[in-house]
């Protein structure tokens, strides 16, 4: 890129300054598409996530607190979160992640029944002849 700038600066007359101007415009265009535009996309996605929150959605705050949305106050920009029965009030901007429609409930383990199958051996154990002789003594 520096070779292009040197070549543009070395150009004589008005033609050289015009090519330098084109290079500067291209540099600003590349900066816009690599730095500014992705930031705006991410900001729009976050705003859509915050606008799409509703009561009962599972959330995670920027501090790592997990809970369920109890109420949303749009005028004040606050959210009341139910974290295991404790109601906490946060700013909407403190919400990091929203899982729509997923409510946090305590999991009740299902009862499992264990069936034990008894197996019988068709043959009785064989008695060795040596054991019979020992018992006779």
UniProtKB/TrEMBL annotation:
Transmembrane domains' residue ranges: 6-33
Biased composition (Low complexity): 102-124
UniProt keywords, alphabetically: Cell membrane, Membrane, Protein transport, Translocation, Transmembrane, Transmembrane helix, Transport
InterPro entries, per the entry: Preprotein_translocase_YajC
Cellular compartment(s): Cell membrane
Main localization (coarse): membrane
GO cellular component: plasma membrane
Entry keyword annotation includes Transmembrane: yes
Membrane topology, as annotated: Single-pass membrane protein
A Pfam family annotated for this UniProt entry: YajC
Nuclease recorded as keyword: no
Similarity field: Belongs to the YajC family.
Protein name in the entry: Preprotein translocase subunit YajC
Source organism of the structure: Lapidilactobacillus concavus DSM 17758
């Amino acid at each position: 890129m520096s070779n292009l700038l040197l070549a543009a600066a070395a150009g004589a007359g008005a033609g050289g300054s015009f090519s330098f101007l084109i290079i500067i415009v291209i540099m600003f265009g590349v900066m816009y598409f690599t730095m500014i535009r992705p930031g705006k996309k991410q900001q729009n996605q976050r705003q859509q996530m915050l606008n799409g929150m509703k009561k009962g959605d599972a959330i995670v705050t920027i501090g790592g607190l997990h809970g369920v949305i109890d109420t949303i106050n749009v005028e004040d920009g606050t959210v009341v979160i139910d974290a295991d029965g404790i109601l906490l009030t946060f700013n909407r901007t403190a919400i990091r992640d929203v899982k729509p429609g997923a409510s946090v409930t305590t999991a009740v383990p299902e009862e499992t029944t264990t069936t034990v199958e008894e197996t019988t051996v068709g043959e009785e154990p064989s008695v060795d002849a040596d054991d019979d002789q020992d018992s006779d003594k």
